[in-house]
């Protein structure tokens, strides 16, 4: 990758702007030196954003007097918007700005939004009057909500630039054409999770405590300053980054392929590779990195079939209208995306589980006994249990399991993606089942004493949050790894956007399910499952069991259908690795480049 950038750096002034250092020093760019700045930036950015996200449910409940379905809708829709804007971020990164500038502008937008939310905590007029317990509370005025939503909106816009590019920009720093680069990239995804999780565990204990027990304004000001520090670190390392030139909008190419394939749907004979439009529009130092024609999803190959050369090609053999005739490269890019969709869908239900712990899980803790000795545990701290569980598993997996298992088997021993995702789905089912049992006990004790707060101790909620963290450690990391490795390097921003799109869909589906359950559960005049400020009046455990049932269906779907796509991917990856090893050893010669 680095050699390709160096060779291309003198071809145009535009590319020279993307690769700032001279040719003689560009070879030193990237690698773990650049990753150190990227992970430093990522750690402080995550500290800033998650400091707000982890405690937003508590903040809206205690300071904006929100409760029940409305609070869950606000948090879920905001989370959904934050995870769908990476689609726009990926478009800007791949077509216009590049990943470096997209990350920078996204960080600045997040900083603006975070500053606005911080002001809501510091200026009393921006919030409704404070109230306690289950008393009837005054709702926020429309203009107060508008200001709050504007701040959250800027944060969501910023997330579009950051989330679409941070992982892809980090992956750009490794040369995957070498064995060393491929080995480093395999560990990058886990260490990416590990580094910022450790930073969050250390810092969030302090930040959330300050927000809950000392001052919401100071507690919000700290992450705002951390985000400013994150931007500074990112800019300090600007000369050490490998910055790839924008390659064009992949999404428009996908639309062209779909359009062309649909227009040529009348072609009944499946096209062969020799009949497809495949001009030499792309050259590479390593032919292994070029997308070759594959036999999967052959319907899409119709987009590259030349039906009438006179009307579709000009005198130089180039397509006249790219919306009618696409090349093999464009078709194969869309195939990459279609190939990851079955696994991507399987991850959505797991992410719905994580949504429950961020909203209803925190509301459970708010209405419980959070006192340990003379110390009041902030409800937002429960998310730390998830992060600690995630960090511990990744450390054990990377530093204990893989080295020892590899030593025993005499080869690199990693759990397959199939196994890890299945474990993640099982963890999601267990998480909701445990949460249902704990909620039943919490509500029964509260009703028995006739109090708003249940005497159930906070320790009883730890298992469900730990299982939520393990769901993320197994399912989320594995899905992210699969998406990034399934697509070519030029589409990594798209892979990041697709991953966060699944989180967005999970948030929107959660909002839909919550509102449907709230409406349907009160049709016959029975006790509502959800709704209102007081969980003691609801049947939250039934909602948890409903989502757990969806998890069971998801496991069946993944085991019998989606896992086949991972198996096909891992088999092709093994074949490619064997070929690359033989090339490196000199047993196989690569085809010579076309002049």
TrEMBL record:
Membrane topology: Multi-pass membrane protein
Keyword Transmembrane: yes
Protein keywords: Membrane, Transmembrane, Transmembrane helix
Molecular-function GO term, any one: transmembrane transporter activity
Subcellular location: Membrane
Keyword Oxidoreductase recorded: no
GO cellular component: plasma membrane
Main localisation: membrane
GO BP of this protein: transmembrane transport
Region of interest (Disordered), ranges: 1-22
Transmembrane intervals: 70-93, 100-123, 143-169, 190-210, 216-237, 334-354, 381-400, 421-438, 458-483, 495-523, 543-566
Pfam assignment, any one: PTR2
InterPro entries linked: MFS_trans_sf, POT_fam
UniProt family annotation: Belongs to the major facilitator superfamily. Phosphate:H(+) symporter (TC 2.A.1.9) family.
Entry-linked PANTHER family: OLIGOPEPTIDE TRANSPORTER-RELATED (PTHR11654)
Record-given protein name: Nitrate transporter
Species of the source: Solanum tuberosum (Potato)
Underlying gene: LOC102579854
